Amino acid sequence: MKNQISIREATTESDIAAFWEQLRLYFKRDIFPNPEDEEREYFLSDTEYRKNIQDIHDRLEDPCYYLFFQREGQDIGFAMPAIYRTEDGKCFILEFCVYPKFRGNGTGRECARVLLDWAKRHGALYAELNYGGTDCRRRFWESAGFVENGIDEWGEPLMILPPDENVPIVIETLSAPEDWQLMKLENGYQKEIGGQALTEQKQEHLKQAIRDGKIVFFVAKRGYRAVGICSVAKCFSTCTYSDTAIFQDFYIEPVFRKKGIAQKLAQAAQAWCKEHGVASLYACCAPCDERMCQALGFGTRLGTAFAHLC
Predict the structure, then answer these.
(1) What does the pLDDT average to over 169-175?
(2) Whether residue 193 has pLDDT greater than 60
(3) Residue 36's pLDDT band (boundaries 50, 70, 90)?
(4) Fewer CB within 10 Å, N or C, the chain?
């Protein structure tokens, strides 16, 4: 069919060289046009970025692919997706580009559709990407059905093409403080309450607090994917002369809300407190969230909380 777009995988040495040449041009032209950008050098580096990506490309499980978009025998763009078949079928789109002279007239949207169809045929159940926080990219991916959905472990905004299938949600107690998904969800929580993404130092402080038993996290899992969290931090109260705890870090990825996950997380935290002799579990919330807290089982009002930030 005339003007039909197809996908061609770069497998030969010359094709792979051409792919990396176009990827570098894309970084210089579209992503890091300012030569002073601190990240530019890393993404143009053979010794770091290319080596890291090549390792992902060459691995036996969950590799990424070097793909060209082709129309009438001519390359018009490229994409670099990774499909995590051993996890939950996520297709993460690392890079996506239509060459400048082919942009417009819906070419980008058609390339996105062709890529998503290709990913589905190769085992993907849904798709996710980092859109760089720019309005034009956000609008483009919204036109392809994606919605904003939190931020990643590095603090970069994410979009997701929501999965169609229903997968049971299981609540687990976090056992591995180093789990990258915890940091991703914690960053999403911080963004939602107006905070900043965790620095490396704060991430290490949080991991150490978990190791020391100062805080316990509960994770809502949709298969492999962690979609929500909450935590319980214990302290000793001289009001009851026993352990009490604070309920915090309560966050569910926007796409997975209104599916009963909030109740499951709160019930898991409350059950854990009962099992571990915690006399009371406190939840501090803004006035707009009071009804939600009451619906989650926090039914006793204890005045107004004040804090002195040291």
Answers:
(1) 96
(2) yes
(3) very high
(4) C
What pLDDT shows up at residue 2?
Answer: 65
Q: Label residue 213 exposed, middle or buried (CB < 10 Å: 0-12, 13-18, 19+).
A: exposed
- What is the C-alpha radius of gyration for the chain, rounded to an integer number of angstroms? 23
pLDDT tens-digit series, residues 66-105 = 999 999 999 999 999 999 999 999 999 999 999 999 998 8
- CA gap 211, 110 in Å, rounded: 48
Label residues 180-201 b or e (16+ Cβ within 10 Å = b): ebbbbbbbbbbbeeeeebbeee
CB 188 within 8 A of CB 253: yes
The set of residues, in sequence order, having a beta carbon less than 8 Å from that of 251 and lying 6+ positions away, is 185, 186, 188, 189, 192, 228, 229, 230
Beta strands at 242-252 and 280-283: parallel, antiparallel or unpaired: parallel
What integer best gives the mean pLDDT of the chain?
93
The 3-class secondary structure across the chain, one letter per residue, is CCCCEEEEECCCHHHHHHHHHHHHHHHHHHHCCCCCCCCHHHHCCHHHHHHHHHHHHHCCCCCECCEEEEECCEEEEEEEEEEECCCCCEEEEEEEEECHHHCCCCHHHHHHHHHHHHHHHCCCCEEEEECCCCHHHHHHHHHCCCEEEEECCCCCEEEEECCCCCCCEEEEECCCCCCHHHHHHHHHHHHHCCCCCCCHHHHHHHHHHHHCCCEEEEEEEECCEEEEEEEEEEEEECCCCEEEEEEEEEEECHHHCCCCHHHHHHHHHHHHHHHCCCCEEEECCCHHHHHHHHHCCCCCCCCCCCCCCC
- For residue 128, the tally of other CB atoms under 10 A from its CB is 21
Cα-Cα end-to-end distance for the chain:
68
Residue appearing with tokens 């619906």 = 295
